[in-house]
Design brief:
There is one protein chain. This protein folds into two domains: 119 residues, ATPase, nucleotide binding domain (Nucleotidyltransferase, domain 5, 2-Layer Sandwich), CATH 3.30.420.40; 164 residues, ATPase, nucleotide binding domain (Nucleotidyltransferase, domain 5), CATH 3.30.420. The chain is built from 15 helices and eleven strands. The longest helix has 25 residues.
């Protein structure tokens, strides 16, 4: 955690960034150029909606007191922007109403983000708030990549692939482009960005633009995640419905009881599972094997979309810190060589700060 400015120094921050996730809230202050001046985070439970204000009241007013009135703009990470929001948007009553309607599409994220927005409006009514969307980076997906093979009447309702983790996929794309600019001079760099954490998704990026991704209409599709299932046969879900399961039971099971937790019956944490697997825990070993299997399949699919790969970048909590996974991928992806395998620290907050600055420049 970076230190805030001293009480007698001039207000140093301009953009307050709030990243409300499914298990934590990350808060940071950034200068005009997007540089991070201070950051901190708190764990919370998205199920405990009534506790959001209590967490924020006990933390942020004191933590941000040193900036006083210097914080005039705030940027929020919003996971799902639907078809309407493909760029940062300033919050007003109409926008908040539309975002409320999108909560069912990303309940682990959009709901907490809205609660933080409303809390901030109560604490600092004068602050200018902006929403920045994880789906926006994927607005460049071509029709063949975002269209589901479903009846036209359903497609007409806006049922399509949106993709997520776009803020961090954009950060990875920009970081890799800067790193390799002198080495290649290529403007059509072929990159697979692997966001691997509590949520997981892959993005095929050519020349800085998203052309394919693994998440879909909601953040449930694609890879195995901490407690989310990733892709399953729709027929399996129809079977459960016919057997008497309710929609609410399906939603809870797929969102909260699946993924690494469901496979291992032990923990949603890859760090915990690595330790347990080394001790011979069958469920932990199965969870890691299924996670790796689907990740390798996904990388292969992204490589096919790109027609080859120059860089595979690992990011997110697992991607950045799991050394064993990096070694496994190096061994399993020799068929894809030559390519560069990198680990890139996530920085959604920096991207949000730059978006906010650009939006009002």
């Amino acid at each position: 955690m970076a230190a805030p400015p001293s009480a007698d120094s001039p207000a140093a921050g301009e953009v307050l960034v709030l990243n409300a996730g499914s298990s934590s809230l990350k808060v940071s202050v950034h200068g005009r150029g997007g540089d991070r001046l201070w950051s901190d985070q708190r764990s919370w439970s998205v199920a405990a909606a009534e506790g959001t204000d209590a967490v924020l009241d006990a933390w942020l007013p004191e933590a941000l007191a040193a900036w006083g009135d210097g914080l005039v703009r705030a940027g929020h990470r919003v996971v799902h922007g639907g078809e309407r929001f493909t760029a940062p948007v300033r919050l007003d009553a109409e926008v908040l109403d539309v975002l409320e309607g999108l909560v069912p599409l990303a309940p682990l994220h959009n709901g907490p983000a809205l609660r933080v927005m409303r809390w901030l409006s109560g604490w600092k009514p004068a602050i200018e708030q902006w929403a920045c969307f994880d789906t926006a980076f994927h607005s460049t997906l071509p029709p063949e990549a975002h269209t589901y093979a479903i009846p036209a009447r359903w497609r007409g309702e806006g049922l399509r692939r949106f993709g997520f983790h776009g803020l961090n996929h954009q950060h990875v794309a920009e970081s890799v482009a800067l790193r390799r600019a002198d080495a290649t001079g290529r403007g059509d760099l072929r990159l697979i960005s692997c966001h691997l954490g509590a949520g997981c998704s892959l993005c095929a990026i050519r020349g800085g633009r998203s052309i394919a991704t693994t998440m879909g209409y909601t953040p449930l599709e694609g890879l195995v995640m901490a407690t989310r299932s990733g892709s399953v046969d729709p027929g399996l879900l129809l079977h459960l419905l016919r057997r008497g399961a309710t929609v609410e039971e399906l939603a809870h099971g797929l969102q909260h009881e699946s993924g690494l937790l469901g496979l291992s019956e032990l923990s949603p944490s890859m760090k915990d599972l690595r330790l347990a697997a080394a001790d011979g825990h069958d469920g932990a070993q199965l969870a890691i094997a299924v996670f790796r299997h689907q990740l390798l399949q996904g990388i292969g699919a992204m490589a096919a979309s790109l027609g080859g790969v120059d860089v595979v970048a690992l990011t997110g909590g697992i991607g950045e810190r799991d050394g064993a996974l990096k070694q496994e991928l190096e061994a399993e992806l020799t068929w894809l060589a030559p390519f560069e395998l990198l680990q890139i620290p996530a920085d959604e907050e920096g991207v949000i700060a730059r978006h906010c600055g650009a939006a009002v420049a």
